[in-house]
Design goal:
Blueprint (H helix, E strand, L loop, with lengths): L2 H7 L25 E6 L5 E10 L7 E3 L5 E4 L10 E11 L1 H20 L12
Antiparallel strand pairs: 1-2, 2-5, 3-4
Length: 128
Amino acid sequence: MNDDKSAARGNGDASDRVAFDYIKSEHFRVIRADGAIGGVTPNGTIHMAFYSERLAIPRRVVYELGSNGRLGKEIESEKVSRDSIVREMDVDLFINLDTAIALHEWLGHRIADAQNRGEGTTKETGAN
């Protein structure tokens, strides 16, 4: 085996080891997920769109203007806002069945770890 292949498989006997290096892409970011929505695509891929929930941010807020040019009291009757909770879609994930099965198993282990540490919750996640 040449040096490049040996380095990729780790130090030691290359026949029983493989090394993975985790490198963040330029698009890597941290998101909060309050839930997910999705389903199976026509070609059998599993689709999940993760979202975070928040109260709506007003689209428009109007204030009185004082004679000194400073903002005064908000005029509530002129506020333009959604009358809802916003589910902001943060990321879409498309995975094949084999990956979904592996993810399901991995997540099951993490849930058990969290429950064993007393971090479990009965709060409904809103996942669809």
